[in-house]
Write a structure and sequence with these properties.
By secondary structure, this protein is mostly helical. The chain contains twelve helices and no strands. The N and C termini lie far apart (50 Å).
Length: 265
């Protein structure tokens, strides 16, 4: 297996439930696949994962339109379900853990981190998951009436922004799963990935809508990312895997909300 494919497959395994584990297991040339170096090399492939998720969602809409073109709510519900299934609810778990910890932590860093590690989902976690799913399906439903190809963008943009978040925010737990993601050697490649895929997303959005909406959407998502980072720095002084997962879900939701709002103006 070529070396560049290993971090790509690790990224897919890390961020989705796509069946790529067998590809990693079949790799006989690397005795230890999950090395710090390989983990650091995964970050630049996050937008590729977003592309795959977005393309899968658009493909489902295209398929559904062949036999149920007028059933928009039906399609929105199925797209929402597939969106959860393809990620395995990994990021929603972060939403739940963060909601419980933010409320139960009462502003205390250590208590917040302790609650975040608790596998039990509390009432605020359940409420947060329900609200995220409900809002996402509503926004998908609205987006389908404008241009369903736009569903391609939120998974891509959210995973571009999470690279920015991870590169600019210290990791709280030294032994956490995400502690090896940011490497000084890989930073330039991560920045290059951000620039390439951001340009792709901007061109795609400009072609489907217009440049002014594309610029406003970048500003909206950027401001959200800035305030999100500010909040976690004030509370935790850094990032955790749950915080990053929740960020992806909330950023997807914010991008959907931004697109719908700008299209209705």
């Amino acid at each position: 297996m070529k070396a560049f494919l290993i971090p790509l497959f690790i990224s897919l395994q890390f961020l989705t439930r796509l069946p790529v584990s067998f590809l990693l297991r079949s790799n006989e040339s690397h005795t230890d696949i999950y090395t710090p170096d390989n983990m650091a090399r995964t970050l630049k492939y996050y937008p590729v994962v977003g592309l795959i998720i977005g393309a899968t969602l658009v493909s489902l809409v295209l398929l559904l339109q062949t036999f149920a073109p007028s059933h928009t709510l039906y399609m929105a519900g199925l797209v929402g379900v597939l969106w959860i299934l393809i990620t395995g609810g990994l990021h929603l778990d972060g939403v739940a853990d963060m909601a419980d910890a933010w409320v139960g932590g009462l502003g205390d860093k250590e208590k917040t981190l302790r609650i975040m590690k608790d596998p039990v989902c509390g009432p605020f976690g359940v409420l947060a998951i329900v609200l995220v799913i409900l809002l996402k399906v509503i926004f998908i439903y609205e987006l389908l009436s404008f241009n369903f190809y736009l569903i391609f963008l939120p998974p891509l943009l959210a995973r571009i922004w999470v690279i920015v978040l991870l590169m600019t925010t210290p990791y709280v737990r030294e032994q956490g799963m995400g502690s090896n993601l940011v490497s000084s050697v890989q930073k330039l490649k991560n920045i290059f990935s951000i620039l390439i895929f951001s340009t792709l997303a901007f061109v795609f959005l400009s072609l489907l809508l217009n440049i002014s909406i594309a610029v406003l959407l970048v500003l909206i998502s950027g401001l959200f990312g800035f305030f999100y980072r500010m909040q976690i720095m004030q509370r935790l002084g850094g990032i955790t895997g749950d915080v990053a997962g929740a960020f992806i879900e909330y950023m997807e939701l914010m991008i959907l909300f931004g697109m719908i709002t700008l299209l209705m103006m």
